[in-house]
């Protein structure tokens, strides 16, 4: 006898409004009949203030997720939240340890020297991948482009972490304070995370940095994951 295919397309976790938003990426996604309605909200991207007085820094609270396709935008957001007196972590201790290793490898003697070395490192690493990118096709090309995105992301993160830091050692201290593996699911914290790191996790309210998302192919899958981390409220 032929096996019967039973698709897992119904969620009993996400609110109906969030499911409708996710259908832009996965058309056959459905909400359970008893799921709550939930809500979709939009907040401007200016973190320092909006005409209506609403800011991400002011609204986000314990248990919320703030998601981005890449890590770099999360640095300035997390630091603003910490300055506002809100407990905040960026998910991914291993990623943080990798950043510290890179800081030490660059051996910046001063802040201007460190920033110059970050710029030189980014240019050198991207240039190293350019010949392979020119020859690559299909999946191999996408893999190389992802590596290049990761290099640019790390360089941007280090520049953000260096903002206002009096010394290179302070950058390491900031990384140690911000990055953790146990942030996701901790109700006492605001958790900033890449979409990839948040896969399989959930929160009642999730803020998604929409401008960091892309469209098409695998990028639609990433957007779908971002949207469906929210159980009740999704804030673009």
Polypeptide structure, described:
By secondary structure, the chain is an alpha/beta fold. It is built from nine helices and nine strands. The strands form two sheets. It has a seven-stranded parallel beta sheet with strand order 3-9-8-4-7-5-6, with helices on both faces. A two-stranded parallel ribbon has the order 1-2. Helix 1 links the parallel strand 1 and strand 2. It is globular and about 65 Å long. The termini are far apart. About 3% of the residues have low confidence.
Number of helices: 9
Global morphology: globular
- Name the structural class: alpha/beta
Strand order of the largest sheet: 3-9-8-4-7-5-6
> What is the H/E string?
EHEEHEHEHHHHEEHEHE
Average pLDDT over all residues: 90
Radius of gyration: 20 Å
The biggest sheet amounts to: 7 strands, parallel
Strand content is: 5-15%
Helix percent band: 40-55%
Strand tally: 9
Distance between the termini: 47 Å
Extract low-pLDDT stretches: 47-52
How is this structure best summarized?
The protein has 236 residues and is an alpha/beta fold. It is 47% helix and 14% strand. Residues 47-52 have low confidence and may be disordered.
SSE blueprint and pairings:
Blueprint: E1 10-11, H1 16-22, E2 30-31, E3 39-41, H2 56-59, E4 65-68, H3 72-83, E5 88-91, H4 93-106, H5 111-135, H6 138-162, H7 168-178, E6 179-180, E7 190-194, H8 195-198, E8 203-208, H9 218-227, E9 230-235
Parallel strand pairs: 1-2, 3-9, 4-7, 4-8, 5-6, 5-7, 8-9
Helix pairs in contact: 3-6, 4-7, 5-6
